[in-house]
Amino acid sequence: MRKDFLNWQRDFYKNAVNEAAADPVKAYVFGGDDTPEQTNIFFKMLLQHQIQVYALAKDLSIEGYKYIKDGNFIVPLQQPQYKLIKTIFEKTSVYKDSLFYDITSWTMPLASGIPYAALGAKDFNKDLLGGKRGGIHGGGMYGHKSHYGYLMDWKDFYAPAALYELQSAGLMVKVASQPFRTPKDIPADSAGRLFSRGSIFIPVQQQRIHEDSIYQVVKNVADKYKVYMYSVGSGGVEEGSELGSSRYQQVVKPAIAMITGPGVNATDAGEVWFLLDQRMNIPAVHLEPVVFNRIDLGKYNTLIMVGGNYNELNKEKLKTWVQAGGVLILTEEAVSWAAQNGISDVKFKKIKSPVEIDGAQQMQGAIFGADVDLTHPLAFGYQYTTLSLFKGNKVFMEKSKNPYATPFYYGNKPLQSGWVSKENGEAIKNSAAVLVNTVGNGRVINIADNPNFRAFWLGGSKLFMNAIFFGRLIDAASARTEE
């Protein structure tokens, strides 16, 4: 019996290697220091499936992106797990049928929000294979106790968890609306470092807590969540605005509630719960419509509504809450419901009459690339101008006449992987992926798709967390759709 298994295993490995040799793709390169935690999670998933991963031994420039020696990874196809590697990495756009049991694409690097590229025979050689690595080194505290303040990089995946814990410890924090560079001549690890929009500034002198305690809290949070935290000795900068300027806005601690219960898509709600509770250690109260209708909403500044039916919800109460300054985050069909009930100002694209059978017109789920306005608060922490989002619905929002109200939008060729009918494909083109409304003193953030799909779509997590932390910082004029 064991001999038969060993013979089968030998033949399986041999066939896999032979198939890989005939494949025009020879390897995949992926990951980056800009997305360390997503890269680590993806890396560990590959190792769990016995896929051989190597450090990149030489710098590579592919499609405008530079992959760095020892900072990125490479997966050669000539190994026993060839078929699984192809399934994980490949983009698929050609299908023999238009009816599907489930979603039509599982391109995992796109879901993880990490850069990657396929290498053909022209680009690949074995000299690119470095040593085997255990992942990208995480962050931590850089520098000693400061009398002035600390900086945290927002690009880190767990930065929202770290921020919430800092706020829960009683610290006042600010967010940078513009990039800046610290002075090169200061004796610190932050010297000459470029900090992007969304970087968090923790001033020492404006706190009610002693500076010794502040340092201990900041250090513990940095170590716990492996985020990059730097001490700074002054507010001076080499480029950009000084740390004490109005370019740094105070971030209000979110108090979150999510509408759940009958009619609400349980899996969508569960995905949000998992992101907040399990990944980010951020609590959110779950309110069924009957509870929502009778309680005082004043204790919450953020409400989340995922796909579902909200006909039992008190619409006027919800609108009044938003007008008073609340942030309402809507995803998928909740976007349509809010617009139909006068809570938001969203217009939708009409789909041309289909010529295919009804089943082919269903949006089973494909991956689309949204163009990103990196200057917008909802894009803080993103480093690339394209974000891959999963779409499994027919919510096609018209772009606003005010470009600042549409920070994420689909262009002429948004499909990255998966199948979509011609009619639905036309509707997605040049539509809004995210649209922001000003409603009184509040904001409504309309996300047409599901940025948290099945709790593994890590690429959309930053967008969702930005809506929670920075939604109320969006300038009122930039969120007016009538411009």
Structure description:
- The protein is α+β, with helices and mostly antiparallel strands and 483 residues long.
- It is built from 12 helices and 24 strands.
- The chain has helices at residues 2-22, 36-48, 82-89, 108-112, 159-168, 211-225, 266-279, 289-292, 315-323, 333-340, 422-428, 461-470, and strands at residues 25-30, 54-55, 60-62, 65-67, 73-76, 116-120, 140-142, 149-152, 174-176, 180-181, 194-195, 200-203, 228-232, 248-250, 256-259, 284-287, 302-305, 327-331, 366-372, 386-391, 397-398, 408-417, 431-439, 442-447.
- Strands 15, 16, 17, 18, 19, 20, 21, 22, 23 and 24 form a 10-stranded mixed β-sheet that branches. A 6-stranded mixed β-sheet has the order 7-13-8-12-9-14, with helices on one face. Strands 2-5-1-6 form a 4-stranded antiparallel β-sheet, with no helix packed on it.
- Helix 5 packs antiparallel against helix 6.
- The longest helix is centred in the first third of the chain and has 21 residues, at 2-22.
- The protein starts with a helix and ends in a 13-residue tail after the last helix.
Share of residues in helices: 25-40%
Determine the mean pLDDT.
90
What would you call the structural class? alpha+beta
Instruction: Please indicate the percent range of residues in DSSP E strands (runs of 2 or more).
Output: 15-25%
Task: From the alpha carbons, calculate the radius of gyration and give it in angstroms.
Answer: 24 Å
Task: Please count the helical segments.
Answer: 12
> Kindly, what is the distance between the CA atoms of the first and last residues, rounded to a whole number of angstroms?
74 Å
Described by strand count, sense and barrel closure, the largest sheet is: 10 strands, mixed
Unreliable residue stretches: none
The count of DSSP E runs of length 2 or more, i.e. the number of strands, is 24
- Shape descriptor reads globular
